[in-house]
């Protein structure tokens, strides 16, 4: 038996006792009240302070790190490669099985000295035939700490041999197989109180997890055990305590099945929407950080679902102090994010999250789903406030996506990496290298003296004052644990244009032009820098979110080019990610070597978020264009979603096909995180489709879905703010506004643009004519939720 050391207690989980599960998983015992556990002689060691978790703010992040006081021999332990000559480099090694995959993440590991398998029957059969435990490693291509673990451990010849000889090693792209990721992340979170990527889980040959964690360093460092030690202890237990591990895997799985069950009780109805909404507001207000906005001190995530809920809450509580507070929280957060370093002031778009409380130093990767949701949040803030800055930021985001994340087919790529090679050369990638600036670089790029400026200031002086650039760099060492940003500057707006103009005795117009010109020059310099990795995987779900972004911003701003881009995206989805023969959405496709769109050898069937997000995007596109083809396809997809994923007994939708025997938990995602829960989005989709089609069964299904999540909505609505919006939409009776006239007439277009410019939550457009074919004499109906001050 190898004892575990408790560095700090894991967060309590009311559904599953993490200490008990750890004891079951590792020791084969079930003694939750044992004094060893209570004294702290068993437990967890935390991640390094520099570890940047990708879990959402409601979780604390931990990682299992185990050590042993024994020194017993281990199975097939490699003798070590240190001092045995130079091992082959990554590119010198022949590719493993991952070389045949399409996923960027899997291809990044194709030359590891590890006998990797993709998730599939070949790997499962091997584990059973050879009677070996499975090592499951899950990550994604733009994950900084995934790169670190690959470089430290999976590129290590010795560790690679230990893994290959003693385990069946499976590598999974979490974006490609979210169903697999959700099951084992549920295990890791339940047993540690948090999670993140890379995720490392050990399974029995029948896929039962018995041990899990996140990042492991390669070797012991002080009191921190390395992956090599962890592997040795697991191998030891596999021989000495095999029955205990296997039975514990089954017990853990049963506990998780019970703990994650979401179902409607007989006769249960959804909780009252106004009560749920007020409780959600109160919980968000309690977690709100007043100085810089956002909902925790650090790290700080954009959390668009929170902001969209708060604006919806304000819309029906405009005359109350709570409504005013909700709006103030939202607009202040969006303003501070736009000013901060999380916003790329040179290259547009937003980085993943901020490592500090002031939105200054980001984790530099850029994700498609963030751009999509933030574009909608900013254009909604523009509708609410009329402030041009919010419209500008929304357009800024879409400019970035159109330029850097768009495929010629109409699809959108998944992400840009945080890491890239330094501009001045080097073989080690560094986080943020593509985005940061030295004081000297800016001095040399912007040397011109500005006419009329105080003290003979140069363009560089004005720019560096405005964006907080310092000669020694402006990144706090606490935000740079590896020294990658030493002497560098992350641009952050420190003064308004008006204050900067006053400081240098210039006009606001002149300073605005100067700053815009400087940013354009810096963008040109960036083009000469080594670019970060671009993940050209195209996912139906995230493309659905981005379709909503272009459709919503295009309709609010009456921008035909943005609406045309939305239509192009919808056509891409239908051409490349809809299997008309099998009548299913496909989850992903890829950019090929010749820039063509490719599918994998075994196309992955769509998951719930693929259906829900695409349906939402199609409904947004229909409302923006009034083209009924998009509405019809949304209806068709909703029918397929109902058929494939609806839980007829408990209500709500399963995240993936419940008939798949390799997915051990039938989960219904009960948290709006970096992306909204697809059940939350479906609660709104069903209601919108019910109004458009007259199908009352879809309205009833929306109610049944909300009833299934009643406990979560009642106790912790902050976990599901998007579903709270669905509850509100079900509560407030729609009010119809009819615009009569020829569809393409200028005055009709003006009226439609006027309605689109207003923030009317859950607003629905439809043609109220009863005929499937449309004529130029048809009128247009807008359905608007009934509530205070909606006129």
TrEMBL record:
Q: Which residues form the Spermatogenesis-associated protein 20-like TRX domain?
A: 96-257
Which residues fall in a coiled-coil region? none
Give the span(s) annotated as Disordered: 30-49
Composition bias type Polar residues, residue spans: 34-44
Its GO biological process terms?
carbohydrate metabolic process
A Pfam family this protein belongs to?
Thioredox_DsbH
- What this protein is called in its record is Spermatogenesis-associated protein 20-like TRX domain-containing protein
* Designated gene of the protein: SPATA20
């Amino acid at each position: 038996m190898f004892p575990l050391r408790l560095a700090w207690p894991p967060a309590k989980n009311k559904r599953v006792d993490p200490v008990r599960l750890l004891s079951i998983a590792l020791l084969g015992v079930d003694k939750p009240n044992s004094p060893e556990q209570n004294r702290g002689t068993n437990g967890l060691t935390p991640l390094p302070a520099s570890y940047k978790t990708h879990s959402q703010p409601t979780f604390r992040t931990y990682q299992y790190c185990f050590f042993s006081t024994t020194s017993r021999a281990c199975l097939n332990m490699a003798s070590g490669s240190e001092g045995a000559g130079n091992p082959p480099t990554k590119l010198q090694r022949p590719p493993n099985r991952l070389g045949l995959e399409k996923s960027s993440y899997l291809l990044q590991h194709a030359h590891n000295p590890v006998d990797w398998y993709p998730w599939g029957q070949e790997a499962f059969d091997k584990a059973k035939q050879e009677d070996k435990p499975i090592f499951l490693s899950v990550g994604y291509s733009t994950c900084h700490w995934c790169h670190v673990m690959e470089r430290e451990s999976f590129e290590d010849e010795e560790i690679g041999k230990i893994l290959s000889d003693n385990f069946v090693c499976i590598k999974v792209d979490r974006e490609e197989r979210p169903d697999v990721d959700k099951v084992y992340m549920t295990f890791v979170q339940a047993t540690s109180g948090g999670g993140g990527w890379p995720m490392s889980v050990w399974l029995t040959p029948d896929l039962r997890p018995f041990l899990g964690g996140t990042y492991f360093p390669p070797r012991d460092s002080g009191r921190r055990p390395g992956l090599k030690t962890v592997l040795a202890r697991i191998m030891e237990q596999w021989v000495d305590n095999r029955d205990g591990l296997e039975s514990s895997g089954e017990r853990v799985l049963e506990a998780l099945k019970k703990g994650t069950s979401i179902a409607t009780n007989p006769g249960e109805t959804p909780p009252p929407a106004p009560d749920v909404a007020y409780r959600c507001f109160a919980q968000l207000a309690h977690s709100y950080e007043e100085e810089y906005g956002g909902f925790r001190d650090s790290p700080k995530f954009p959390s668009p679902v929170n902001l969209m809920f708060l604006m919806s809450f304000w819309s029906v509580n405009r005359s109350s102090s709570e409504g005013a507070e909700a709006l103030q929280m939202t607009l202040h957060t969006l303003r501070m994010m736009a000013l901060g370093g999380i916003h790329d002031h040179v290259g547009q778009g937003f980085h993943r999250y901020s490592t500090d409380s002031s939105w200054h130093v980001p984790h530099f990767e850029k994700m498609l789903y963030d751009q999509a949701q933030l574009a909608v949040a900013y254009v909604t803030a523009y509708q609410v406030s009329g402030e041009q800055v919010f419209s500008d930021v929304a357009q800024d985001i879409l400019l970035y996506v159109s330029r850097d994340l768009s495929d010629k087919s109409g699809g959108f790529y998944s992400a840009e990496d945080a890491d890239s090679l330094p501009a001045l050369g080097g073989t080690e990638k560094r986080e943020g290298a593509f985005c940061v600036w030295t004081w000297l670089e800016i001095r040399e790029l912007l040397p011109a003296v500005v006419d009329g400026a105080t003290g003979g200031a140069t363009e560089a002086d004005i720019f560096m004052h405005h964006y907080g650039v310092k000669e020694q760099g402006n990144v706090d060492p606490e935000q740079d644990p590896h020294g990658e940003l030493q002497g560098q500057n992350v641009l952050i707006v420190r003064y308004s244009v008006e204050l900067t103009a006053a400081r240098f005795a210039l006009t606001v117009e002149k300073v605005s032009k100067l700053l815009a010109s400087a940013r354009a020059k810096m963008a040109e310099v960036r083009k000469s820098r080594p670019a970060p990795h671009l993940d050209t995987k195209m996912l139906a779900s995230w493309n659905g979110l981005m379709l909503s972004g272009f459709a919503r911003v295009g309709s609010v701003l009456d921008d035909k080019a943005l609406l045309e881009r939305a239509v192009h995206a919808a056509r891409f989805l239908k051409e490349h990610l809809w299997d008309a023969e099998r009548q299913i959405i496909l989850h992903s496709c890829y950019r090929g070597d010749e820039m063509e769109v490719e599918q994998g050898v075994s196309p992955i069937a769509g998951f719930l978020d693929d259906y829900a997000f695409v349906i939402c995007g199609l409904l947004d596109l229909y409302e923006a264009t009034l083209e009924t083809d998009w509405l019809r396809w949304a209806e068709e997809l909703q029918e397929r979603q109902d058929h494939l994923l609806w839980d007829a007994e408990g209500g709500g939708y399963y995240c993936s096909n419940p008939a798949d025997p390799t997915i051990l938990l039938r989960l219904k995602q009960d948290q709006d995180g970096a992306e909204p829960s697809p059940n939350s989005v479906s609660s709104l989709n069903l209601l919108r489709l019910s109004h458009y089609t007259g199908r009352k069964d879809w309205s009833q299904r929306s109610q049944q879905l909300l009833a299934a999540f009643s406990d979560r909505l009642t106790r912790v609505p902050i976990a599901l703010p998007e579903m709270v919006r669905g509850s509100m939409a079900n509560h407030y009776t729609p009010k119809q506004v009819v615009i009569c006239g020829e569809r393409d007439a200028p005055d009709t277009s003006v009226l439609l643009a006027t309605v689109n410019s207003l923030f009317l939550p859950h607003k629905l457009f439809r043609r109220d004519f009863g005929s499937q074919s449309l004529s130029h004499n048809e009128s247009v109906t807008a359905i608007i939720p009934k509530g205070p001050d909606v006129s």
